[in-house]
Design brief:
2 copies of one chain form a homodimer. The first copy, chain A, has 3 domains: about 15-250, Type I PLP-dependent aspartate aminotransferase-like (Major domain) (Aspartate Aminotransferase, domain 2, 3-Layer(aba) Sandwich), CATH 3.40.640; about 250-375, Aspartate Aminotransferase, domain 1 (Alpha-Beta Complex), CATH 3.90.1150; about 385-460, Translation Initiation Factor IF3, CATH 3.30.110. The radius of gyration of chain A is 24 Å and the shape is globular. By secondary structure, chain A is an alpha/beta fold. A 7-stranded mixed sheet of chain A has the order 1-7-6-5-4-2-3, sandwiched between helices. Chain A has a 4-stranded mixed sheet with strand order 11-12-14-13, covered by helices on one side. Chain A has helices at about 15-25, 35-55, 70-85, 100-105, 125-130, 155-165, 235-275, 300-310, 330-335, 350-375, 405-415, 430-445, and strands at about 65, 90-95, 110-115, 140-145, 170-175, 190-195, 205-210, 275-280, 290-295, 340-345, 395, 420-425, 445-450, 455-460. In chain A, helix 2 runs parallel beside helix 7.
């Protein structure tokens, strides 16, 4: 049964399992104790730190283990930004950072650097955000992911590190998604990672803080991990994390080539196989194993359910699949279609035949889901444009209806009004803000902006063809 | 090789190992996902939460898992105390809490309730600390351990919970040391535990927050664990923690009886076998498996090293074995001898023969260590009291000498001065503050208090017999 959600959590690497088992026997004691069990635990911890530091590209005394990638990010952001409060209260982040970075940075004043439609920041835009803001507030810290967790788009970390260096602002890199594939180039100051993303066990994150980077831990004092991450070390998991990072790195080049070819095949074939699909993210500068696409007129949750029934485990950034009722902030920042969104992230060792089978079943599943929700059958089947004068402005009330219904109703109404007519779509679904403009672009219709309405928001669409 | 340091970290229970292995295969996916691997993980997480809640004596929705006991304490103290900031800024703790509690509480205004010489607080003293302090500052939270980690002394939690209830102050119980043995009685509001203390794996703590207790998480937003503990759940370890807690509870009554008998034997035999030993902690109201004693004229680190060479792994609260240069705050708060301190904490399944062997080798090891450091050979061998008039006040300069040297020098000098003479011991070793008065009490000499000195502190001892 193919599991295509490695970006959420990768299956445990066999080396991680072996190392964990061995360390359960050898490494359960307190590494701070001086008796033999403690000394043995300390040796294991030191060896794991050396192996992890080598893979990260830092010194062992620059690296600490944390209980998760999230904790690594929280501790890194708070420790680095707090140490530089005098230099400024702002934390500069890309708009597509992982939620753990955004939430940690949000405790300071947050400056978001926008991304382009491929989900990529520019070093120039980042540089512009590093100086004092209009109120004179400087930047304490900058944060940039090495690659995006939803789209796989790689960020120009080395270039951004250079502009940070010039501005004298430390850069924290969230390398959670990329660490399996190689170290992060460039002059970063702090780096965070998460073992279960590379095939290591849950319960282990890592945080590297380069020597010379100011760091002021903000949590209650604790002597573990150089005073930077409190609590008894999860040693068996740490040993397994380090061993598996080394193992996946040894396999990374070969795996990357194979997975990149599979993802390229999905990116090429999908638009040919499924009508009204938008493949998002950078087609070239991307992680080898992630591809994300959105399907017009599709309820993301239903599609995920159908894929699960067909044996495929994937995730989605659609609002209709989460409890938050908003589409993923990544898709929002990119300004791309969010409905029917599917993220495929292939674990190492994925068989090409499974990808073929995915491409074989997806078209049928999408059309089933579309038919069930009453979607238009696609541009070819939509009614011809009516001739004649532009009609009166029309209001399409979709209040209380969730994604993808507002877009479906719009797609049904528009062909029945004369060219030149403006339709005001009323919606209180957050996804509409993203999906109505995206639909207009896909259909070559004019999106004329949004206005506040008594309830929800009014989205203006003018039929132009 | 007998491992007698269960209070630091218990060896992994076989049930924990089995459950961990099974959950590595079944529970590596993200329990927040809706596909089959995620649903399977969610089921495991729910079942673990139910089992742990039953063992703790709370509802499953009152219990969250954290990455360690330390984190459970940190999150519990900050969440509960912050939620009641309007009621007061103080956190009331016993003076013998675990350092994780003291450090977490220290971020608020800290009120320490003293303990008696057995290490026990009184409910009356606790009650006195709960009202507004002289400046009018109220108590936001009270913290009390169920039993002490160094001495095993049990605290009157139910009585203290009652006085807290009357004062309207929530009580957080640190149950890290006792949870293996049974639930904590009484009307506590929050409770923290640590899996590796009961034979579960590292990487799992638990925090129970009773319904109705105000709680305001202070960390960056995160949807895991009801928004109270950030980061991807360490599911295999959580499953193992819950399964092993249930398993040790099933064995607790039988194990407790056996270990209690062994500890009683140590408590009785030690003073018969080793001269100048002080066994500390409550002899009756105590955990079954912990016993702590201190040996006059012994360097704790050397004794631990000798015990390790003889195959016994124990820990110590002596200053001379830690990097802090101060004796454990627990021994300090109790006012007992700290030099040559040894904590024996027996894991479940300890063989009585190992305890016998410990009692057989200890006397020889202690006398070897004493001989090496030049200690007096014991009261019997010390010179007779000199007759005659009290002599001139004497100064004994031990500046720069570490524990147990100042006490040894005092013990050598005192018999050579006339009865009635006052000796001023100059010392800059923190342990002297505890050990000089303790020595006077053991020897029946008069301790006349301390005074600031140009360097270090002057301790006044008057020979009375």
């Amino acid at each position: 049964m193919p599991y295509f959600d490695a970006a959420s959590s990768a299956p445990l690497h066999p080396v991680a399992r072996q190392a964990l088992l061995a360390a359960l026997d050898e490494g359960w004691a307190d590494p701070a104790r001086l008796y033999r069990e403690g000394r043995r635990a300390r040796l294991l911890l030191d060896a794991a730190r050396e192996a992890a530091a080598e893979a990260v590209g830092c010194r062992p005394d620059e690296l600490i283990f944390t209980p998760s990638g999230t904790r690594a990010v929280h501790l890194g952001v708070s420790g680095a930004a707090s140490a530089r409060r005098r230099a400024g209260g702002r934390v500069v982040v890309s708009a597509v950072e992982h939620s753990s970075v955004l939430h940690a940075a949000d405790r300071f004043a947050l400056t978001e650097v926008p991304v382009d439609r491929l989900g990529r920041v520019s070093a120039a835009a980042f540089a512009g955000a590093l100086g004092p803001d209009p109120s004179g507030e400087g930047a304490a810290l900058a944060c940039l992911q090495s690659a995006n967790h939803e789209t796989g788009t790689e960020q120009p970390v080395a270039e951004v590190a250079e502009v940070c260096r010039e501005a004298g602002v430390p850069l924290l890199v969230d390398a959670a998604q990329s660490l399996a594939w190689g170290p992060v180039d460039g002059g970063w100051s702090l780096l965070a990672g998460s073992a279960h993303k590379w095939g290591g066990p849950a319960g282990v994150g890592l945080l590297a803080v380069r020597k010379g980077v100011r760091f002021a831990p903000q949590e209650p004092a604790d002597e573990r991990e150089s005073g930077r991450s409190a609590g008894f070390e999860n040693l068996p998991a740490i040993v397994a994390a380090a061993a598996s990072l080394r193992a996946v790195r040894a396999e990374a080049a070969g795996e990357a080539a194979g997975l990149r070819a599979m993802v390229d095949r999905i990116r090429t074939r999908l638009p040919e196989l499924v009508p009204d699909v938008e493949v998002v993210g950078d087609p070239v500068r991307r992680l080898p194993h992630i591809v994300t696409f959105s399907c017009l007129y599709v309820d993301g949750e239903t599609l995920l359910h159908e894929l699960d029934r067909a044996g495929f485990s994937v995730s989605s950034g659609s609002s209709c699949t989460s409890s938050t009722l908003t589409p993923s902030h990544v898709l929002r920042a990119m300004g791309v279609l969010s409905e029917g969104n599917v993220r495929v992230s292939l674990p190492m060792g994925t068989a090409a035949a499974d990808v073929d089978r995915f491409l074989a079943v997806l078209p049928e599943l999408v059309s089933t889901v579309r038919a069930r929700i009453g979607a238009p059958a696609g541009p070819a089947a939509e009614p011809e444009a009516e001739a004649g004068e532009p009609g009166e402005p029309l209001v399409l009330d979709t209040l209380g209806r969730r994604c993808p219904i507002p877009v479906i109703e719009l797609a049904k109404l528009l062909p029945r009004v004369p060219v030149g007519t403006t339709i005001t779509v009323l919606s209180d679904d957050e996804a509409a803000r993203l999906d109505i403009p995206a639909w207009c672009e896909m259909r070559g219709q004019e999106y004329a902006g949004e206005q506040p309405a008594e309830r929800g928001t009014a989205y203006l669409v003018r039929r132009v063809s």
